[in-house]
Each structure stands twice: as structure tokens, then as C-alpha cells.
Design goal:
It is built from 15 helices and 13 strands. By secondary structure, the chain is an alpha/beta fold. Strand 5, helix 8 and strand 6 form a beta-alpha-beta unit. The structure holds pyridoxal-5'-phosphate.
Amino acid sequence: MPRSTIPKTGRAHDQIMAELDAGMADDADFRGGRTFSLVYWAGDHHHKLVAAAHDRYVAHNALNPMAFPGLKQMENQVVAMSASLLNAPAQAAGTMSSGGTESILLAVKTWRDRARKRRPWVRRPNLVGPATIHPAFAKAGHLFDVALHLVPTDTDGIFDPDRLAARVDRNTVMAVCSAPQYVHGVVDPIPQVADRMVARGVPLHVDACFGGFIQPWLERLGVEMPVWDFRVPGVMSISADLHKFGYTAKGASVLLYRDVSTLRHQFFVSTDWAGGLYASPGLAGTRPGGPIAAAWASLQGMGQDGYLDRARVALDAVNRLRAGIRQIPELRLLGRPHSVIATWAAAEDGQGRRAVDIYAVADLLHAKGWSVDRQQRPPSMHNTVTAANAPVIDAYLDDLRASVAAVRADPSLSRSGEAAVYGTMARVPLRGLVKRNVLDMMEKMYGPQGEMPDLSGDGGGIAPWQQRLLDATEPLLDATRRLRTRLGTRIGRGVR
Ligand SMILES: Cc1ncc(COP(=O)(O)O)c(C=O)c1O
């Protein structure tokens, strides 16, 4: 975006709105069901209600509940409705936040501060969890100086609870599991982990940012999964996003604690400021009223029946998608069918050779207008399925089959477009190098020129020297891969 100035005089509103509309021309088509994450779309009728509620409270500020008691009451009700959905006990309490990441940051800060208060010897706090927990925990660790002690999972996202428990030490302030984790859609073995954490006096936080408002309905529809909410005695806090399967406006999540006494460790109070006493429940100062009102309206407008209906449609759609993927011999499904996520990777032969380059498949899908979500360990594709995707599952499967066949027929597709970049990034063992490249791209995007990175075409951001380094390390990596396969130490191949 070129630098510009604020217009000297205000422009006509219809012009401004027309420009806002025009700005959407190249956006991913979520209304047409062609995105499989990022947007949780419940249709125009529901959207209108949410947007109107958001609009009604767009100027309100929830920082001062005394000034806007109605808004505070709505927040209380959203928290209470969420607590009841997640089987929280009567003494549970919590707040809303701006999204999953803020809820996670707050949970980590809260448990760290509580540990410091109760166990003053905790100098270098850590949390334990499987490697599949969301990167928001790494962000929290970075911001709040909490080390992450992560245990590996197999390619299906499964880990050993005993191994997790073995990572607990005197500085452990919390354990984390997910319901489900985003990568494979697996609900972690929460009862087993909780048992082990109770024995060690470590609070278990469940990240249900993705699943908080879908798993309860899936359970009612008969989907089998581990019990994961407050019914499990060792689960001490849960984060759950309303702006995902709560189908509300972006900027809404809840963070719940089993016991109200934990909540105070989340708060920040300053008594010394010249401007007076200052108290804030979350990370932000000003708290927008819109997302709170919209979340309240969304829960009221959808009702239990509405959520259940949408979950039923999404479940049927994800099952059709999984069944279609199972019919494609070059692909395999990863994870467990606990949720509405389908994650697929390339099938492998006994030597660990992949039947197809799925990043090249992703490029072709993208060219056909699908918004794709590439994952790296192993190279895999993620599909979060909502009711909005239901009408296009067959069209997606047609395009998927055609794309797999095209890549099989022309392996050179792996060396062009984004496939080259993602393939390289996934293979580069030096993560510092990858990080540097990503930082460079971000600097371009958010720098004065506001450039969008061009991942297509030659190189795609990979410098020639980096490519040479990769070429030099590739044979070594291949040999290691083959050796691990032969020794059978490769954890969980995950073919289903
Ligand atoms: C399991 C899980 N946790 C946390 C988050 C982070 O949520 P947000 O993007 O709202 O910050 C996500 C987002 O997809 C998620 O799937």
C-alpha cells in the first residue's frame, strides 16, 4: 500500500462503502464454502444478527463495567452459558477475551503467577504438553518467560501421557492438552493426563479454542472422543473460542477456571498511576463492546438446536470428505475422527517414499479457487469442515482427485510455485533459517511499501545460497530418514 494521507475533508459515505466492498474482490470465498479454516460461516441470516449486535455496541468500552453495566451483564451471561456447556462446577468463573491467543496468554500468565505465589522457589517456570499444542503457547512462553517442555507425538498426533508426566519438575506451573488440537483434530487423552497431573499437583489447562463450541454437540451426535471438559476432575481451566464454532464476530473467546480463586491471578491492578486506580481483566486496556454483544446475540440467536443442527451438517460433510480421501490411493488420513477436521498426507511405501507431493497438489487446488492450509510435520493438508462446506464436498473431492492425478503425471510441478517454497521450508533442518525468511516476508508485508510476498515463481523467497545448502543436506536427510524407517524408530507411521 503506498503511503497516503488522511483526506483533507471527509468523503461521501457511499463512496467509502463502495471502496470497502471493492477491497473484498480477491478474498477467499468463505460464503461459497471454499475455505476450510479462518472463517466460521453460519449463513446470511445469522450473520445479520451478529453484525447488528456488534454495530449496536461498537462504541462501547468494556474496560469500565461501571460505565456500561449492560455490557458487563452480557459478558457474565456469555461466561455462564459457556461454563454450563462445558460442565463447569458452580464456583467456576472466567472472562471473555479477544480470541484464542489472548485466552491462552492469560491462562499461562495466570498459572505462572499462581505458582509463584504458592511456590516462591519457582524461578524458571515451565509448562508441559504435547508438541501439537497451538503456537499461542510458545508466544505466551516467550512473553511471560515460561519454558515449554514438549513431548513428541506420532504422525497421528498421539503421545504417551507417561512421557508427558515425566517432563514435570519442581518448576512446572501447568500442563496443557487440547480438545482437539488443530493439526490432526485429535482430542488429547485428557483423563489420563489429568490423573497424572493431579498426582503431581499440576493444574491442567485444556485448550478448547477450536473445540469448545463444537465438541459438546459432536458428543451428543455420538462421536467418540475422550472426555475433556470440567467433568474431568484435574481440568482446572479451559479456553474456548466463540469466534470459531460459536459463529460470532471475530474478537471473542472465553477463559474459564474451575475455581473463582484462580481468576484473581489473571487480573492486573495498578494503584500508583497519577490518573487513579487502574484495573484490567485481560491483556488489552480498552475492551471493545461489539464482540461481547455479538457473542451474546449469537448464542441467543443460534440456540442449542441451531448449534446441534450445524454440527450435524458439518459432521456429515467431514465424514463424506474422509470417505472420499480414503478412496484416493496416493493419500492417507492422519489423526483420529474426534472432530470436524480432516488432515491428509501422502501415502508412503515401506521405504518412507511419498506417493505424491501434496504441496504441489495444494497449488493446483489453490489455482482451482480453494483456500488451502498447508502443514509441515509431516507435509499434510488441513481441512476444518463447517456446515458451509457441506454443499461443495463433492466438488472439492473431484478437484482433489484431478490434482493428485496431475501431480503424478507431471512431477516437475513440485519444483514450481508455492510447492517449491513449502517443500523447501518443510525440509530445511535449520529452523533459524526458515524463521529468518519468514521475518523477511513479514517485514515486506508490514513495511512502508506494504508488499504482498510473491511465493509463486522462481525461488519463492529462497536465496540461491540457501538452496545450495539445502541441496547439500538433502542426501544426508534422506539417508537418516531411510535408516530410521529401517530401524523402525520412526514414531507412529499413522497409516489408516
Ligand atoms: C486449538 C487452537 N488453539 C488456539 C487457537 C488460536 O486462536 P486465535 O487464532 O483465535 O488466536 C487456535 C486457532 O485456530 C486453535 O485451533
